[in-house]
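Write out the 3D structure for:
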Amino acid sequence: MRTRGRTNRRSGGGLTLNMAPLIDVVFLLLMYFMVATDFSPAEEVFRLDLPALDGGRPDPLEMLDEPLRVRLAAAGASGDAVRVIVDGPWDVTPSVRGLGEFLTESVMPSGMLFVADHPIIIDPTPHVAWKHVVDAFNAAVAAGCTNITLETSS
C-alpha cells in the first residue's frame, strides 16, 4: 500500500543544544568567583626618613634618570690608545677596563646606581679606533647592561 502525500523524512538535521541553561551556569560561576575571591589589600606608601649624606657622594638609593654618557677620546697621535671619560661625579679609571669594573660594581643587583636597562650612550671622538668603541661596548654588555647606544660627536 502506498500512502499519498506523506513522506517519511527526518526533520532538520541533527542534535540541538539549548544554550540558555549554560549561560545561566556561567553567570552563576562568575558571581561565585567574584564574591569568594579575596582581593589583596592595597599597597601603601610608608614614610622613610633617611639621614643626610655627607660630602658630594651620589645618593645610593636614588635611581638616575639621565643616560650615562661615556666619552671615548683618542690618546696619542696615532689613535691606538683611548681615554674613557664617564660624565658624572664618579671616579672611573680612564680605560676600557676601568669602565667595565665601574659598570660591574654599579649595575643592579650587585650594584646600587643603575638598573640593567639604564641607558648608556657611548660617544667616541672621530679619531678613536673602532676597536676601542667595540671594546667599550663589550665591557658594558659584560657588566649586564642592556640599553647601550652608540652616538657620534658633532
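The CA atoms of residues 68 and 120 lie 5 Å apart.
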